[in-house]
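Protein in question reproduced for absentees:

***
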Amino acid sequence: MKKQRGVTLIELMIVAVVAGILAMIAVPSYTSHITQSKIAEATGSLAEAKVRMEQTFNSMRSYYVDGAACPDLSGLFKDTSFGITVECSNTTFTLTAKGTSGKTMDGYTYTINQSGEKTSKTPAVSAAQPCWLKTKAQTSC
């Protein structure tokens, strides 16, 4: 009798099924970690933006840079999946990082103000939370 060489169709199907099962587990976990890292990057940039706002206040005695305009902090968010909005007055400010839809972060919003009060809104929650939610699935502080 001749010795069989190569791979049978059944063996190939078993390998395909195992690879499919591994992909079903790995892909959602990977995307969750990517989202979590983008959130961490945005909250880190917001914290740095708050420090810069405080530096402006310490040197100008106002959050305005030239007496009428808020500082431009968009450079902190240049390479992130978020855009920043700065609202300020002489004695208050609110920084808002909003996820961009082109980079799969649509629906994520993080804010911080001069008092350090943080809020966040993600697609997983129906109302803004009084903290920064750090993962895609987190729904409360």
In short: Helices lie at 9-60. The CA atoms of residues 61 and 97 lie 25 Å apart. The two ends are 70 Å apart (CA to CA). The first strand starts at residue 82 and ends at 88.
